[in-house]
């Protein structure tokens, strides 16, 4: 089954949105396969956002994501990568629709609450960057017959 890497950013953690965000993905029918509260090192942040290392906001992005703890997660389910991106809303919260996480809780692009992988390759890369094998849990979910 497809997996994606989602992360409540420091602003989301500080604003007590971890539970709200986990609830949305749980209720959608996705399965949580791993999660941890952690501080990100500068090196990990730079690797995570490597595709943006030539952008003017790169320094700000790295210092923001390392400024306080994040809540890193692996979620599983059919088409979870694209669906999670839809549930997050557009990168700029001012363009994100109401009903999306960024649309409901964010105001600025620099503090947009949540990260989610944008493709299968980045999902794999990001899951491997943040989680080791023993932190990803394989199990059957009883309710899955009522989702699929
Ligand atoms: P997303 O997080 O929706 O995948 P992205 O990969 O284009 O968006 O950018 C990564 C993060 O960088 C984004 O969540 C917030 C920040 N960012 C993007 N564009 C920005 C900009 N123009 N100014 C400041 N920060 C920006
Ligand atoms: Mg991105």
Automatic annotation (TrEMBL):
Manganese listed as a keyword: no
Phosphothreonine: residues carrying this PTM: 91
Residues where ATP binds: 9, 57, 85, 91, 102, 112
Keyword Nucleotide-binding: yes
Gene Ontology annotations of biological process type: CTP biosynthetic process; GTP biosynthetic process; UTP biosynthetic process
Entries under InterPro entries matching the protein: NDK-like_dom, NDK-like_dom_sf, Nucleoside_diP_kinase, Nucleoside_diP_kinase_AS
Active site: 115 (pros-phosphohistidine intermediate)
A Pfam family that the UniProt record links to this protein: NDK
Subcellular location per the Swiss-Prot or TrEMBL entry: Cytoplasm
Alphabetically ordered keywords of this record: ATP-binding, Cytoplasm, Kinase, Magnesium, Metal-binding, Nucleotide metabolism, Nucleotide-binding, Phosphoprotein, Transferase
GO (cellular component) term, any one: cytoplasm
Known catalytic reactions: a 2'-deoxyribonucleoside 5'-diphosphate + ATP = a 2'-deoxyribonucleoside 5'-triphosphate + ADP; a ribonucleoside 5'-diphosphate + ATP = a ribonucleoside 5'-triphosphate + ADP; dZDP + ATP = dZTP + ADP
Enzyme Commission code(s) on record: 2.7.4.6
Chief site of localization: cytoplasm
Required cofactor names: Mg(2+)
Entries under CDD domains matching the protein: NDPk_I
Chain positions with Phosphoserine modification: 122
PANTHER family: NUCLEOSIDE DIPHOSPHATE KINASE
Function: Major role in the synthesis of nucleoside triphosphates other than ATP. The ATP gamma phosphate is transferred to the NDP beta phosphate via a ping-pong mechanism, using a phosphorylated active-site intermediate.
Stated family: Belongs to the NDK family.
Subunit structure: Homotetramer.
Identification of the protein by name: Nucleoside diphosphate kinase
């Amino acid at each position: 089954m497809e997996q994606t890497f989602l992360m409540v950013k420091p602003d989301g953690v500080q604003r007590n949105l971890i539970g709200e965000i986990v609830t949305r993905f749980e209720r959608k029918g996705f399965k949580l396969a791993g999660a941890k509260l952690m501080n990100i090192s500068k090196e990990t942040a730079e690797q995570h956002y490597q595709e943006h290392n030539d952008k003017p906001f790169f320094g700000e992005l790295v210092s923001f994501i390392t400024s306080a703890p994040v809540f890193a997660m692996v979620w599983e389910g059919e088409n979870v990568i694209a669906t999670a991106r839809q549930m997050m809303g557009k990168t700029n919260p001012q363009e994100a629709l109401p009903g999306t996480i960024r649309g409901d809780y964010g105001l600025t692009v620099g503090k947009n609450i949540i990260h989610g992988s944008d493709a299968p390759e980045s999902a794999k890369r990001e899951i491997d960057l943040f989680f080791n094998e023993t932190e990803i849990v394989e199990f059957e979910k009883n309710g899955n017959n009522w989702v699929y």
